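Researcher: Good morning. I'm working through a list of sequences from a screen, and I'd like to move beyond sequence-only analysis. For each chain I'm collecting a predicted structure so we can compare shapes side by side. This is the next one on the list. No need for commentary yet; just the structure.
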Amino acid sequence: MSIFNVNYLCREVLRDHAFRAAMKADPAKALAGLDLTDEERSALLAGDVGKLYRIGINGFLMGYLARFEVCGLNVQNYNERMRAVKVNEVGAPV
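Model: Good morning. Structure tokens for this chain:
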């Protein structure tokens, strides 16, 4: 798994304006050269933050994807998708 790489990618959406523009224009092309698993890549392209969270991606960092409206995300659908994730009594995804 390349959980670190997805977390780093989310951070780069905040910091790197050129990368952010590439992600907004053509996310598939922007992700093409990155070391991601097929599962991570498809979840990112689908805006499936629930799945990404369940495999260990940081929810706070994924918020940058919604903030800058990349991968079909916005604040409203990000919140809806994250709230739909089932968690156990200590907040870990199940």
